[in-house]
Amino acid sequence: MTDDFVGRPSWPRPYVVAIAGSVAVGKSTVARLLRALLSRWPDHPKVDLVTTDGFLFPTRELEARGLMARKGFPESYDVKRMIGFLADIRATGRATSPVYSHQAYDILPGEEHVVDRPDILIFEGLNVLQIGAGMERANAPVFTASDFFDISIYIDAAEENIERWYLERFMLLQRTAFQNPASYFHHMAHAPFDEARAFALQLWERINGPNLRDNIEPSRSRADVILHKQADHGVDWLKLRRL
Ligand SMILES: Nc1ncnc2c1ncn2[C@@H]1O[C@H](COP(=O)(O)OP(=O)(O)O)[C@@H](O)[C@H]1O
Ligand SMILES: CC(C)(COP(=O)(O)O)[C@@H](O)C(=O)NCCC(=O)O
Predict the structure, then answer these.
(1) What three-state secondary structure class fits 176?
(2) Phosphoribulokinase/uridine kinase domain spans which residues (predicted)?
(3) How many domains does the chain have?
(4) How far apart are alpha carbons 93 and 86 in whole angstroms?
(5) Domain extent at residue 101
(6) How remote is the CA of residue 92 from the centroid of ligand 2, in Å?
């Protein structure tokens, strides 16, 4: 009755789990594992997973704004659309998100991921705990993504390990995904090891490393849970802020 009066949904809304952390720290691995584990619980079988790379501006837009070397930085995301997505999930349990392809290195035109009343939504991305630039300004956002989370988990590790995981993943992709002529990095498919590694190191040193230090790590203290990984990906400690 009260819910009818204030216009809240009378069905149980999705429980939203946010997963944050650096590029290559293991967010998608943890998210997929969590999804598989939670799906097994008999009382909430429907678990959906959405990644925030779907809310990156398309390459065309990033190029127009001079942001191709700032991919993953706060200004490279359509934050308004992302908050709108989360607000729709809260209000109706249903929403659609654009789809990003690592192969195309771009948003896929015309494709969307439809979320339809899951019991649990895992919302994964390096920016989920960021509060947006210019909070002091008159046009400061009314909501931040965290307003829509039931629990948030920050995956943490020493930067030297994350950088190594990034380089290892790049070298693995060179032997596999980059071999596909449709891959954005196909020009690296046959590069000698040292050249490919130097290329990946530049991406880390110019984009992902600075983004970790300037924007991602500063959001860590907002997480409910910090899960710290050691060099072999094993979790050596876990901190709970509040539950
Ligand atoms: N538990 C793990 N054991 C072994 N390798 C892992 C583990 N977690 C992540 N990795 C590897 O580390 C790299 C980064 O993980 P990924 O989940 O892709 O990170 P993110 O989504 O944060 O960019 C990948 O190459 C992945 O295979
Ligand atoms: C799309 C991303 C911002 C998101 O990274 P993710 O959280 O999926 O690992 C990142 O993969 C990226 O493209 N960074 C820019 C530099 C690079 O190509 O690594």
Answers:
(1) coil
(2) 16-160
(3) 1
(4) 9
(5) 2-240
(6) 30
Residue 72 Cβ inside 6 Å of ligand 2? The answer reads: yes
CATH number (domain holding residue 77)? 3.40.50.300
How far does residue 71's CA lie from ligand 2's centre (Å)?
7
DSSP string, 133-171: S-TTSTT--S--GGGG-SEEEEEE--HHHHHHHHHHHHH
pLDDT at 41: 85
146 is in an annotated binding site: no
pLDDT tens per residue, range 97-151: 999 999 999 999 999 999 999 999 999 999 999 987 644 555 666 789 999 999 9
ipTM above 0.95, yes or no: no
Tell me the residue ranges of DSSP E strands in the chain: 15-21, 47-51, 94-101, 106-116, 120-124, 151-156, 225-229, 235-240
The closest residue, in CA terms, to atom 2 on ligand 1 is 233
Structure tokens at 96: 């659609």
